[in-house]
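Before going further, learn to read the protein records used in this course. The integers have meaning only within a learned vocabulary of local backbone shapes. To see the layout at work, look at the sequence and tokens printed below.
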Amino acid sequence: MNKQLRQTLASIFHSPVKANIIWNDIETLLLALGAEIVEGDGSRFRVALNGIRSVFHRPHPQKEADKGAVKDMRRFLSEAGILDEV
């Protein structure tokens, strides 16, 4: 994992929750971790990683994830066993 991906992962697990993480950076991180991403309707997409599945919504019109989306992503990554890599 390169430096930018590690920074994105650290930003997701940062406390207090950050709201300025670029959503494309999160998607790039998911792909680097080996997640399968399937496009859904509108801004929805499904993610599967290490046997854990979830549905997320891309933020629009802004490009940054809000705090709620970051919390959801943090929970998803933790359930998929990614917390140990932080």
Summary: Residues 3-85 form a domain with the Double Stranded RNA Binding Domain fold (CATH 3.30.160).
